[in-house]
Amino acid sequence: MEKPNIIVELNQQIDLKDEASKSESSLEESLPIPSDNVPLMDLDNGLVGWDSLTDTANPQNWSTTKKSILMAFMAVISMLSPLTSTLVAPGIPLAMRDLHSPSPIIGSFMVTIYMLGFTIGPLFLGPLSEIYGRYPIVILSTWFYVIWLLGCALAPTMSSLIVMRLLAGTGGSAVMVIAPAIVADLYSVRRRATASSVVVLTQSVGPALGPICGGFIAQELGWRWGYWILLIVAGSVTAGMTVCMPESYAPKILQKKTERLRKSTGRADLRSMLDKRMSKKALLARSIVRPVKLLTTSPIVILICSYCATIFGFLYLMMTTIPQVFSSTYGWTTSYVGLAYTPIGLGMITALLVIMKTNDAKVIKLTKQNNNVFEPEMRLPATIYFAIWIPISLFWYGWSVDKHTHWIVPILGMFPFGFGMLGIFLPCQTYLVDAFTEYSASAVAVSRASMSIVGAFLPLAGPPLYKALGYGLGNSVLGLVSLVMAPIPILLYKYGGYIRRRWPVTL
């Protein structure tokens, strides 16, 4: 899928602007973390690479303005896609009434089925972006998401709505795995955590923001209007991306450069330095298998995915209980029930500010102490300070609801969960990107798929769990599980380097 010609002119104009980015690059060079490997042109040996270390065709040398435009698109779509999963939560009773579906389990499944699409999509969309480039996969899949939003808005039955939400989730999942990979395309190791934090925040705050908006929309306009508004906003953003988004995947950029040079020089022997020298069929087969291989052979991926998926499942389990808790126990209206999700989002924003302030600085400090040798595990120490807040929040929220305390108590109890969750997810995702840089989309795809499948099905266990144990004991069980798993990032910080060398994964 080729980009419109206007993008070439726009990118050239942006690259001519913003000379201030050069001083930023100079500052980076003074930092102790070594530069990422840069393949440079070697025409004598028939190898095509970047013209120089400062070649502006290299996405890591793009101007700040150009990078910011791309990151803004990624941030907005990264928020809208997961927001779609929970926007309908406050309006579930209205949708069930209109579509004649009295089963509460079906109502919960209507929310979580979207996350099942997040399980399916990443496993092939992320790897496909490593073959065909970021641009065509992001654009096509996001338009696919937008089209099925229209289907959701017009759904005549509950079964059709569930199917269309599954398809919308599959399309919307692409940006969830490709946006972090684009961060790796654009930013060197020393600046990656700060850039990643923006993407992870928008992806994480979306599910918390969805019910806040959805509550007011469902009560004032009807539950279908949530989809109409999403359709308008997401369609507009996707149209802008189609015109303005540049390709950022270095192997794809160098492949096109090689093709141009072959034509202009008549040298058929030229090849990209990042060329795998495999047929597209072989590349596709390997790419589809790659996420499964990571999940089954890399202890690092297995541990990170298990921990993050568990916490993510607990988030959706908590969020599916909120409408019932605050409408039945506290008598809140649909619109006010949506506001109950606010503390989770505020906790995430607070964690983002802490991570942005401390994580890159901590990595630089640890690198200096390690004879200026960077290790991906240096991203992980901060997680222990955030991990402890997950069980605290689950105990706090569960027992305050169980004992029917004043509504402010469970509301405040949800803030630590958002704070702890984002404080765990940010370093863990950046760690995966750093540890599997070239295949970062596949690594993040595995993480996203595992999180999504747990997020899709664990909430279905909520009603029987809380019916049997109550909110107090039920959330205490979840809290104990999260407490047992909390040391995982610290164990990886201590032994991750040894594990990577002892069990290397051939991708």
From TrEMBL:
<dbReference type="InterPro" id="IPR020846">
    <property type="entry name" value="MFS_dom"/>
</dbReference>
<feature type="transmembrane region" description="Helical">
    <location>
        <begin position="339"/>
        <end position="359"/>
    </location>
</feature>
<dbReference type="Pfam" id="PF07690">
    <property type="entry name" value="MFS_1"/>
</dbReference>
<dbReference type="GO" id="GO:0016020">
    <property type="term" value="C:membrane"/>
</dbReference>
<feature type="transmembrane region" description="Helical">
    <location>
        <begin position="473"/>
        <end position="493"/>
    </location>
</feature>
<feature type="transmembrane region" description="Helical">
    <location>
        <begin position="300"/>
        <end position="319"/>
    </location>
</feature>
<dbReference type="InterPro" id="IPR011701">
    <property type="entry name" value="MFS"/>
</dbReference>
<keyword id="KW-0472">Membrane</keyword>
<feature type="transmembrane region" description="Helical">
    <location>
        <begin position="225"/>
        <end position="246"/>
    </location>
</feature>
<feature type="domain" description="Major facilitator superfamily (MFS) profile">
    <location>
        <begin position="70"/>
        <end position="497"/>
    </location>
</feature>
<feature type="transmembrane region" description="Helical">
    <location>
        <begin position="198"/>
        <end position="219"/>
    </location>
</feature>
<dbReference type="InterPro" id="IPR036259">
    <property type="entry name" value="MFS_trans_sf"/>
</dbReference>
<feature type="transmembrane region" description="Helical">
    <location>
        <begin position="137"/>
        <end position="156"/>
    </location>
</feature>
<feature type="transmembrane region" description="Helical">
    <location>
        <begin position="380"/>
        <end position="399"/>
    </location>
</feature>
<feature type="transmembrane region" description="Helical">
    <location>
        <begin position="439"/>
        <end position="461"/>
    </location>
</feature>
<protein>
    <submittedName>
        <fullName>MFS general substrate transporter</fullName>
    </submittedName>
</protein>
<feature type="transmembrane region" description="Helical">
    <location>
        <begin position="104"/>
        <end position="125"/>
    </location>
</feature>
<feature type="transmembrane region" description="Helical">
    <location>
        <begin position="162"/>
        <end position="186"/>
    </location>
</feature>
<feature type="transmembrane region" description="Helical">
    <location>
        <begin position="405"/>
        <end position="427"/>
    </location>
</feature>
<dbReference type="GO" id="GO:0022857">
    <property type="term" value="F:transmembrane transporter activity"/>
</dbReference>
<feature type="transmembrane region" description="Helical">
    <location>
        <begin position="69"/>
        <end position="92"/>
    </location>
</feature>
<keyword id="KW-0812">Transmembrane</keyword>
<keyword id="KW-1133">Transmembrane helix</keyword>
